[in-house]
C-alpha cells in the first residue's frame, strides 16, 4: 500500500499497478481493422505458401533437358503446347519436346523443370525459339518455400503491422484473434482549467493534460475517451467517473493528488480504497492508483504537465501494454552522453526531458529540452523533447560528459 509516510520506489508502485490490471478479452477482427492490434492467438498457414509451384518470370515452361545447349548460335525451337496466364487452373503435364507459354505467378505444369524468360526467346505463340539455356529449376518458385502448410505465420504477442497483416492474408486468414483495444477515459481536474482556445481570465489556464493523455493513450495502442476537465467539485467528478467506468476499461485522471486543500480526487477516491502516496521520482512524486467500485483501474496522476507526461510513460503506458497482452511492457532503454551538466533532486530518481542527437554510429548525446531544467510546469518546451534521461536517486549532479540512461520516445513507435 502506498503510505503517506514513506516514499515508495518507482518499481514498487509499478508492480502494484501491473498486479492490478488484467489482459483484456480476445476478439476476432477482420484484417482491415487489424492494424496496430496485438495478436492473441497464433496465425498458422492454411496451405503451403506459395500454395503451388509457380513461375517467377513471364516466359516458357520447359523441360531443361529439351533446351540444353541453346544459344544464339544453337537456337532450339519447340512447339507451344499450352498458354498459362496467372490464375490458370490447368494441370496437364508438359509433353516432352514442347514448351508452355507461362506468365509470372501461373502454376508450373507438372513435368516442366525450368522457366525460360521471354527475353531469351523470340516470344512465339505457336512455336518458340529459345536462344539461351536455363539452369535446372530456373525461375520456378517452389510450393512451401515461404512456409509449409500448418507452419506458424505470426506468433501471439506481435503487434500487427502492414507486413504482418499481409502475411495473415497470404496464409488464408480473413480475420485474426486480437486483444481488445483498451478504452481509456481521460479526465483533467482543476477549477483553473478552461478548454484550449477559450478566453482565460487571470488564474485560468488551458487544459493541456487531457489532450496530452488522450494522445498518449492512442500512441500506446488504446482508444481514448477524452472527457475534458472537471472543476474541483466532488459531485461533478463522481458523475464523470461513473460515466467513465461504464464506458472505459481504464481511467486516467490528472491533478488533485498532492496535499492541496482542494484535492478532490483524493477526497473522493481515497475512501474507495484508491491508494495515494509519494514515489521517489521527479517529476511525478504524488501518485494514486486503485479501482473504481466496479473494478475499473484508475490512475490518478499529478497535475503538473511534465509530471503527467512522465507518469504516463512510467506507469500508465506499461499498464496499457499489459491490457493489450503485449509481452514487453517497457520501452527499450539505452544510454547517452550529457552535452551539458544539470542538477538533480536529492533522493528521487530524475526523469528529465531531453533532446537526443545520434551520430552515424547511433551513439546519443543528450541535453535538457526544457529551458528551466526539470521544472514540472514547463509544458511548452516539453514539445522539444525527444525522450527522457533517467538519473539515479543517489546522483546529485550530472556533469558534462557523464553517461546517463536514456528512454527515446521515438523508439517503439505507436502501436497504431
Ligand atoms: N505543499 C506541497 N505542495 C505540492 C507538493 C508537495 O509535496 N507539497 N507537491 C508538488 C508536486 S511535486 C506536484 S507534481 C504537484 C501535484 O499537484 P496536483 O496533482 O494536486 O495537481 P494540481 O495542484 O491540480 O496542479 C498542479 C499544477 O498543474 C497545473 N495543471 C493541473 N491540471 C492541468 C491541466 N489539465 N492542464 C494544464 N495544467 C494543469 C495546475 O494549474 C498547477 O499549476 O503538487 C505540488 N505541490
Ligand atoms: O513531482 Mo512533481 O511531479 O515535481 O512535479
From TrEMBL:
Record Pfam families: MoCF_biosynth, MoeA_C, MoeA_N
UniProt keyword rRNA-binding present: no
Catalysed reactions listed for this entry: adenylyl-molybdopterin + molybdate = Mo-molybdopterin + AMP + H(+)
Alphabetized CDD domains for the sequence: MoeA
Enzyme Commission no: 2.10.1.1
GO BP terms in the entry: Mo-molybdopterin cofactor biosynthetic process
Gene Ontology cellular-component annotations: cytosol
A GO molecular-function descriptor: metal ion binding
Domain MoaB/Mog, residue spans: 185-322
Keywords assigned by UniProt, alphabetized: Magnesium, Metal-binding, Molybdenum, Molybdenum cofactor biosynthesis, Transferase
This protein's record includes keyword NAD: no
This protein's pathway: Cofactor biosynthesis; molybdopterin biosynthesis
Function: Catalyzes the insertion of molybdate into adenylated molybdopterin with the concomitant release of AMP.
Family named by the database record: Belongs to the MoeA family.
Protein's name in the database: Molybdopterin molybdenumtransferase
Biological source species: Microcella pacifica
Amino acid at each position: 500500500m502506498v503510505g503517506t509516510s514513506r516514499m515508495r520506489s518507482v518499481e514498487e508502485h509499478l508492480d502494484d499497478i501491473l498486479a492490478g490490471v488484467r489482459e483484456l478479452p480476445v476478439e476476432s477482427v477482420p484484417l482491415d481493422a487489424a492494424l496496430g492490434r496485438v495478436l492473441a492467438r497464433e496465425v498458422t498457414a492454411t496451405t503451403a505458401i506459395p500454395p503451388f509451384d509457380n513461375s517467377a518470370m513471364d516466359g516458357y515452361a520447359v523441360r531443361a533437358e529439351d533446351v540444353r545447349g541453346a544459344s544464339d548460335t544453337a537456337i532450339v525451337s519447340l512447339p507451344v503446347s499450352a498458354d498459362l496466364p496467372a490464375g490458370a487452373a490447368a494441370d496437364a503435364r508438359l509433353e516432352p519436346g514442347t514448351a508452355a507459354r507461362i506468365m509470372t505467378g501461373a502454376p508450373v505444369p507438372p513435368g516442366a523443370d525450368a522457366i525460360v524468360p521471354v527475353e531469351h526467346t523470340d516470344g512465339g505463340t505457336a512455336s518458340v525459339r529459345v536462344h539461351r539455356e536455363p539452369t535446372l529449376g530456373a525461375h520456378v518458385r517452389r510450393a512451401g518455400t515461404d512456409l509449409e502448410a500448418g507452419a506458424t505465420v505470426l506468433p501471439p504477442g506481435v503487434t500487427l503491422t502492414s507486413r504482418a497483416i499481409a502475411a495473415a492474408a497470404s496464409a488464408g486468414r480473413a480475420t485474426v484473434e486480437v486483444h481488445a483495444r483498451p478504452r481509456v477515459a481521460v479526465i483533467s481536474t482543476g477549477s483553473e482549467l478552461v478548454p484550449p482556445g477559450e478566453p482565460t481570465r487571470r488564474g485560468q489556464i488551458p487544459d493541456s493534460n487531457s489532450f496530452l493523455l488522450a494522445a498518449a493513450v492512442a500512441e500506446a495502442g488504446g482508444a481514448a475517451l477524452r472527457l475534458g476537465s472537471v472543476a474541483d467539485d466532488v459531485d461533478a467528478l463522481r458523475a464523470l467517473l461513473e460515466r467513465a467506468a461504464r464506458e472505459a476499461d481504464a481511467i486516467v485522471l490528472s491533478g488533485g493528488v498532492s496535499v492541496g486543500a482542494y484535492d478532490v480526487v483524493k477526497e473522493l477516491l481515497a475512501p474507495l480504497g484508491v491508494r495515494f502516496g509519494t514515489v521517489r521520482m521527479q517529476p511525478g512524486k504524488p501518485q494514486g492508483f486503485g479501482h473504481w467500485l466496479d473494478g475499473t483501474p484508475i490512475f490518478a496522476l499529478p497535475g503538473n504537465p511534465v509530471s503527467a507526461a512522465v507518469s504516463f510513460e512510467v506507469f500508465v503506458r506499461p499498464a496499457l501494454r499489459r491490457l493489450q497482452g503485449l509481452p514487453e511492457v517497457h520501452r527499450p532503454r539505452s544510454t547517452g552522453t550529457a552535452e551539458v551538466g544539470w542538477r538533480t533532486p536529492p533522493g528521487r530518481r530524475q526523469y528529465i526531458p531531453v533532446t537526443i542527437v545520434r551520430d552515424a554510429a547511433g551513439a546519443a548525446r543528450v541535453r535538457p529540452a526544457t529551458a528551466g531544467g526539470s521544472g514540472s510546469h514547463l509544458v511548452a518546451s516539453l514539445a522539444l523533447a525527444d525522450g527522457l534521461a533517467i538519473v539515479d536517486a543517489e546522483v546529485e549532479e550530472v556533469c558534462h560528459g557523464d553517461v546517463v540512461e536514456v528512454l527515446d520516445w521515438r523508439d517503439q513507435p505507436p502501436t497504431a
